[in-house]
Input
Amino acid sequence: MLILSLETSSPVCSVAVHQAGVLVGQAELRLEKSHSSHLSVLVNQLLENTGHKLQDVAAVALSDGPGSYTGLRIGGAAAKGLCFALDIPLLAVSTLQALAWQVAAYTASPEAYLYCPMLDARRMEVYTALYTYDSREILPPTALVLTPDALAEQLGGHRVLFFGNGAVKFQPLLTEQPNAGFLTGIEPSAVAVGALAWGAFQRQEFRDVAYYEPFYLKEVYTTTPKVK
Output
């Protein structure tokens, strides 16, 4: 069972291929605003480099959000197009849960921590959630305004690892908190999406391709340009 995974919720455009939950190959492009022009190229190159064709793909998984509105929209459109064309199911994996998984998977004694991914949501706000090492949700995805007292209850009884591009805004507020640990350089990856998607595939947790919409978490506000 070959699953193609797409991650477009951040500036990193990432794709991966898993065979029955085992990573076969991955490709990433760290170039701002590259998703619309490079996503299909990355997919085709990765499949070719791993000796596969689009017709070999049994399902498409994508990062469900929250994250960049434009990035999620591009990823969703690409995934739906592939699923329609190939007549295969669509899987959606929480961006925050995937981030937590990829940190827990490479942490020594992972059961000793809670995992708190944070994605920048402008100003002092982040998209965040809280997970155990085995991806159990402790705090559901939420838009959180960062203050010194934010997550005080969780930090009072647990060691918590913070990571993602929003965590850097929280670190200066917790200099006196011994239970808070911060990791840098953690970006969303299609590898984590694909790893979690295999379980969802086995459970047949498929999304409706026609009506699927990414999980933006917050309502998207648009403005109309002023006419001079």
